[in-house]
Every structure is written in structure tokens, then in C-alpha cells.
Amino acid sequence: MKTPLHVFKIGGHVLDDETSLQQFAAAFARVAGPKILVHGGGKGASELLHNLGIAPQMVQGRRITDAATLDVVTMFYAGKTNKQLVALLQASSVPALGLSGADGNAIRASRRPVREVDYGFVGDLAAGSINTDLLRGLLNMNLVPVLCAITHDGAGQLLNTNADTIASAIAQAMAGSYAVTLHFCFEKDGVLADANDEQSVIRRITPDEYAQLKADGVVSAGMVPKLDNAFAALTAGVEAAVIENALKINEPIKTVLCRS
Amino acid sequence: MKTPLHVFKIGGHVLDDETSLQQFAAAFARVAGPKILVHGGGKGASELLHNLGIAPQMVQGRRITDAATLDVVTMFYAGKTNKQLVALLQASSVPALGLSGADGNAIRASRRPVREVDYGFVGDLAAGSINTDLLRGLLNMNLVPVLCAITHDGAGQLLNTNADTIASAIAQAMAGSYAVTLHFCFEKDGVLADANDEQSVIRRITPDEYAQLKADGVVSAGMVPKLDNAFAALTAGVEAAVIENALKINEPIKTVLCRS
């Protein structure tokens, strides 16, 4: 039987608020066994860009990462967010070790090809992007890898990558040697049947039900890439995928995505 | 016989210039066997502070690290400098893995007590500050730890620490299980007998000779802490200490500090 491994992804809301972050750290400390944490960025990176006079460039809802923007988001995600998170987790007795994708060649990406849009220094993942030997080695040292969403191309170039994609790719890559549960954490308790009713958490969703929820417009546009990622992970061998509240990861109410 | 371990420290000049940094990376790749790299910060951190309207506060030549300054230097050292360096080293086939002192509890420090001066969020090291188990574990995975000079107090607080002090402390702590050579790299070829003659490298200095050089004012004020650190490391069991040019680490001209 494979050893269980929990891969968590947290994003903006919990990272922007010190109290929330401490609450998450305490809850995360209570998750038993090997675990990996992936984090996105919060509002802080946009504020820092603004304070430095770098106007955020968005195309189709995506940030264009020019060289100046890459510098700033690397500093913010890999420097500030990652190190503050690691220090907080260490204070909560979690043996956290922060990584960018460059560290130990943890995540190798390739710069997104220019088609209609040049996204700039944005990295896409492919099969073999995740250095599973490194992650297994760190887990065997009883460390908890904490990854930010900065990757590298192996030729010295850092790249900005979507954190949900990284979490899903890690879960899939590690599924060869662990029974992986992928946890997408956000500010709600799960996928809601009624966007205006926080109590309407759908406790269980199959791929067929997901198709129907999308067709009915129940799942909001912002949630679709997250759920697509999670279902893709299940198809690729991840044991379980969960959508849950970052501040309630030890509590029973959440959305569990099922293979069938 | 103990396995050799090389601990290198690089600082401002080489970090501020991309070409120099690539030259260093290529030279560092040629150093055989287990190795650890510690880096300071360059001019970039001061520029970033300036661009964000945070005036650098200096007392007796030391930067006072208030909360805003700590945020910025953490971003710069642990985010930008460390990750760019790691990505460059990876491109040079060095299996680099970047760390702050918080990562894996690599370096635990305590905030400097307030006496005449409140240095702010500055961390001092004590015996046991260096997590030798972590560093040995990473070296055993054939990784090359690359440490920035940001430490933590174990209670969630990041701290700014002198990079020379960190390199010396790592060399001393690892001397229990490795035959350690400590390399302080800077922009000159070694300690100069004549500050105006770059060719006047003193090839070998004993503690007695060092005392004389200090008394004669041959060693400049800026070099004294570096040499004090290096001789302290020798006293504490480090096999050899070297003062050399960051861009000529594979070449024979350098200053070797001797126990006697």
C-alpha cells in the first residue's frame, strides 16, 4: 500500500492576512504524515508593482510578465511570501523548507510560446517537469516542501507559473509513489450549489456531475480552471481531490471530487 | 579521514554584475566535491529601498533593519538574489538549492539585544545556530546549499544577519564531520601588502603575522571583521581559510590563512 501524501495549494485570501495565515499554519501542522504546500501570490505583489511604478499588464485576465514584473513577483513570491510562510510554519512546528522551481531543479518549465498573446516570462509545465526524486528525498528527511509558483527553464531564466497548475502537476507526478490527496484551499467551504448561500456546499462531485454543473452555469468561471486541474489530477492517478476552506482544513465540510 | 567540504562566501561586487555572476558560476561549477555557497546582498537592495522611499538608516556603518527594511531585504536577498543565483548555477550544472535560515530551520538566530543602539531586526548567531543535520542531509543528496543572509528566530520572525558571520559559523559547525575550507571571496586577489598594488597579495598569514599587519595598519578596517571571522573559524577546527577573488577561485594566487 502506498504511503499517503497530502498536497495543499493556498492562494490570495489566506496569504494577505497575517491572522489567517497563522490560523492556516496551525491547522496545517495538524495534518499527519508527508505533505507538500504550494502557494500563489496575494495582493501584495500588485501593490509592490504599483509602488515601483510598474503598471500591471493584463491580457484576457492574465498578467503579462515582462522582465521588470518577473523581478518583482520573484522577489515577492519567492522572497517575502515564501519566507514569511516558512518562518510561520516553523514556529508552528512544521519542518517547512521553501523552494522555487529553480531550487534543486524542483520544477523545470518552458517559456510559453508566443501565439496571439506574448505572455512574457510565463512558464508552462510538461511531463517530467516535476523533480520527484528531489521531493521524495526532502520528504524522506521529514521536511515539508513549501513551493512558490516561480519555475525555471534550466538555462538560467526564471519563469512565472500558475500555482494551481503546479499543485496539480506535483500531485500527479508524486502519484507514482504515494497515495496523493490534492487539496485546493480557498476562502469558501467548497463548491457552492448557490453562490449566495455559503451553506450550500456540494459534498461530492463526479466528472459527469461536473459536466452538468458547468453546463448549468453553477460553477463560476473562476472555479473552472481549478476544477479542471483537479479532475485532470484524478484521471492521472491522484487518489482524491478536495476543494475546501484554507482555514477549515481539519473540518469535515468540503467538496470531494470523485473519479466516478 | 574526513571528506573535504568547501564553504564559499560571495558578496556585493560579483552579485551586482550579471557577467561576473556567470563567470563565478562557471568557476564554482569546477570546484569538486561537497560545497556550500553563502551570499550577501549587493547594491540592488539599497536601490530598491530608495525606489520604495525607504531611507537607509545607518549607525556606525551598520544598516538598521526596521520592519519595512527587513521586508525589502528579505525580498531582495531571499527572492531576487538567491533565486537568480540558483537559476544561474543550475544552468552551469551545479545542483544548487537556495535557502534562507528559516528553510528547514537552517540557521536559527536571536534578535540582537538593544544596548546603545537598537539594530532592529538583526539576528546574532550562537553555538547550535546551524542545523548541521539539514546541511549534511542536503549534501548527501548531492545538492549544493546556497544560503542568503536572512535567518529566523524560530518564533516566526525573520532576521537580517551578516553573511560573513554565517559563512564562518557554517564552516565551524560542519568542521565536526568534514575537513572544511572556508573561502571568503571578494573583488581583489587576496590580502594586499600595499593597497595600491593589486600584485602585492600576501600568500600566507599566520595569527602572529595578522596581529602585526593589524598593528601596522596594513589590513584595512573593512577587512578586519572578515579576517577575524576567518581566524576564529580556524581556531574552531576549520582546516583552512582562504581570501580570494570571486572570479579567480580556480587560480593559485590567493591569501591562505594558517593556524600557525
From TrEMBL, chains A, B:
Enzymatic reactions: N-acetyl-L-glutamate + ATP = N-acetyl-L-glutamyl 5-phosphate + ADP
Any one Gene Ontology molecular-function term assigned to this protein's record: acetylglutamate kinase activity
The family this protein is said to belong to: Belongs to the acetylglutamate kinase family. ArgB subfamily.
UniProt: substrate binding residues: 41-42, 63, 160
Function noted in UniProt: Catalyzes the ATP-dependent phosphorylation of N-acetyl-L-glutamate.
Protein name: Acetylglutamate kinase
Chain ranges of the Aspartate/glutamate/uridylate kinase domain: 7-243
InterPro entries linked to this entry: AceGlu_kinase-like_sf, AcgluKinase_fam, ArgB, Asp/Glu/Uridylate_kinase
Native organism: Hymenobacter aranciens
Enzyme's top EC category: transferase
Location in or out of the cell: Cytoplasm
Site entry (Transition state stabilizer), positions: 9, 226
Gene: argB
Pathway: Amino-acid biosynthesis; L-arginine biosynthesis; N(2)-acetyl-L-ornithine from L-glutamate: step 2/4
Keywords for this protein: Amino-acid biosynthesis, Arginine biosynthesis, ATP-binding, Cytoplasm, Kinase, Nucleotide-binding, Transferase
Enzyme Commission number: 2.7.2.8
